[in-house]
Amino acid sequence: MLRTFFLLSMPWLCLSACINTEPPSNPFREPVNYAVGESPSHMVVADLNADAAVDIIIANSQDNNISILFGKNDGSFPNIRTLKTGRQPRWVVAGDFNEDQKIDLGVVNNGGDNIVILLNQGGGNFLKSMRIKTKRSPQSATVNDFNGDGHLDIAIVSRFDYLLILLGDGSGRFKRKKEIDTGAIPTDIISGDFNGNGLIDLLTANNGTPSSDLLFFWGKGDGNFVEGTHYRTGMNPLAVITADFNKDSYPDLLAVNGMGDSLTLFVSNAEGKGKGFEKVSDFGADGGPTSVIAHDFNGDTLLDLVVTNTRSSNISYLTGKKDGRFNHPPLNLYTGKAPFYVVTGDFNQDGRMDIAVTNNNEASLSVLLTKSGDF
After folding, report:
1. How far apart are CA 218 and CA 223, in angstroms?
2. What is the CA radius of gyration of the chain?
3. How far is CA 5 from the centre of its chain?
């Protein structure tokens, strides 16, 4: 069931981050909706059947399954397959776990307290190779090579203050490497080289009291991590992404805060050369933000944002500024009831990135193709 966290309503919060202008022009065509399972939450994009078209994989929490929408080059998804995975799947990761040139899946089952590894057999068929027990209520996961052996590994956070590292052996099987205490109620995790030392690090968004922060775990290159810096966000962050918003060639951070209807922007500290971050601004989108993506949708070379807002049942499109901040007010678009998660992909192969949005309260997926030319 969808959980919406909020206390304050500040959809137009904009603290020195923006100026009042007209909403931007709409870069997207009208949404096309597809029926999926009940309570669709997280999704991932990948080419599962090696046809050079982008496919979409969605975790349907209340139906205990995933929906696989096989894409065509025109941006449509005429073929949908459903696979049972376990109790209340909440998150999906993708990668070639057994190194056979086919993209496999890992499904995090929040109600089953496990992750299921599905190996791609070709032709839209998958084989369950492993079911790995986690701590209670796993929330999200990230895939990367944490120990530098050339094989994909998985890191999973559970809602009860827990981070699990699974090391892959290249055959599609994983072994438990390490269990780490996190901040209170981690809800999201991403991976990357955040301090510029060539090793893969982890970053968690911690939703609970008294945390409400982002917490780094610095990678040692052998699959082990040491706790690093905390960065305070707005109230109860639900998600975090990384991108170079101010074009200084170093990664910046953007957190989505479940309470207060705000997002928090951190830019890389120039003196630290990617080894530290400075909080720049808190700003709003609309009611109940849950996820965000960054891409240059209007072709001005600056990163824009699309935010899903569950309580206001819309998505917000915000255009980027040269300093890494974003213009207000946003353009708010309706996709369906309680949009929960958004991804990008070039679904119609026209060289422009499109978006897809899961609508949690109406069991649907909205696909919005980007308009061609000026808009």
Report:
1. 10
2. 19
3. 18
Q: Which residue has the tokens 């101010």?
A: 246
Do residues 346 and 54 lie in contact, with contact meaning Cβ atoms separated by under 8 Å? yes
Counting Cα atoms < 13 Å in the Cβ hemisphere of 187 gives: 25
For 125, residues 6+ apart whose C-beta sits below 8 A from its C-beta are: none
Q: Among residues 213, 290, 299, 219, which one has the least CA distance to residue 258?
A: 290
Tokens 């599962």, residue located: 48
User: Please, what is the average pLDDT of the chain?
Assistant: 91
Cβ contact 120:48 at 8 Å: yes
Q: Provide the whole-model pTM.
A: 0.92
Of 194, 308, 284, residue with least CA distance to 235: 284
Element (H, E) at 32: strand 32-35
pLDDT band at residue 20 under the 50/70/90 scheme: low
Element (H, E) at 106: strand 104-109
Q: How far is CA 53 from CA 70, 105, 158, 346, in A?
A: 8, 17, 33, 9
Can you tell me the distance from the alpha carbon of 88 to that of 100, in angstroms, rounded to the nearest whole number? 29
Q: What is the mean pLDDT of residues 178-193?
A: 92
Decide if 135 contacts 108 (C-beta within 8 A).
Answer: no
- pLDDT (tens digit, 9 = 90+) per residue, 58-67? 999 999 999 9
One DSSP character per residue, 211-257 reads T-EEEEEEE-SSS-EEEEEEEE-SEEEEEEEEE-TTSSSS-EEEEEE
Terminal-residue alpha carbon distance, the chain = 38
What does the pLDDT look like over 232-267, one tens digit per residue? 999 999 999 999 999 988 899 999 998 889 999 999
Neighbours of 160 (CB within 10 A): 16
Which two three-digit tokens encode residue 100?
């056979």
Residue 209 in tokens: 């009291």
Query: 320: which residues sit within 8 A by CB, 6+ positions away?
Result: 245, 296, 300, 302, 303, 304, 305, 326, 327
Reference 343, options 48, 54, 89; nearest CA is 54
* Per-residue pLDDT, 5: 33
Hey, how many other C-beta atoms are within 10 angstroms of the C-beta on 278? 14
Residue 375: its pLDDT value, please? 54
Q: What is the sign, positive or negative, of the torsion defined by CA atoms of 225, 227, 228, 234?
A: positive
Residue bearing tokens 């559970």: 158
